[in-house]
Amino acid sequence: MPNIASAKKRVRSNVKKTNVNTLVISSMRTAIKKFEKEVKAENKEAANNNYNIAIQRVDKAMASGKIHKNKAARLKSRLTKMKNAM
């Protein structure tokens, strides 16, 4: 446990940032899984809605630096291929 005030503050801020980062990444993964589930069930309307949400979440994670731009491009490409193959 830190003794210096600035180190204590850094611990508090790191906890807050970790929580935000975890929320962004987990919501992105959840949106992707929901889309994949709808594609597997062959439900086009729900899949289109979930596709848009998943793309938005991937873009948000990329814009805020949570994931690399190449990973975002790879995920978006994979999701688009799944959508077009339906």
Structure description:
The chain has 86 residues and is an all-alpha fold. The protein has one domain: Ribosomal protein S20 (Methane Monooxygenase Hydroxylase, Chain G, domain 1). 85% of the residues lie in helices and 0% in strands. It has helices spanning 5-40, 44-63, 69-85. The chain is elongated and about 60 Å long. The termini are far apart.
Question: What's a quick, concise take on this entry?
Answer:
The chain is mostly helical. It has helices at residues 5-40, 44-63, 69-85.
Q: Based on Cα principal axes, name the global outline.
A: elongated
Overall pLDDT, averaged? Answer: 96
Share of helix, binned = over 70%
Per CATH, the superfamily is: Ribosomal protein S20
- According to CATH, the fold-level topology is Methane Monooxygenase Hydroxylase, Chain G, domain 1
Order of helices and strands: HHH
Structural category is mainly alpha
Radius of gyration: 17 Å
CATH architecture: Up-down Bundle
Q: Into how many domains do the coordinates divide?
A: 1
| Share of β-strand residues | under 5%
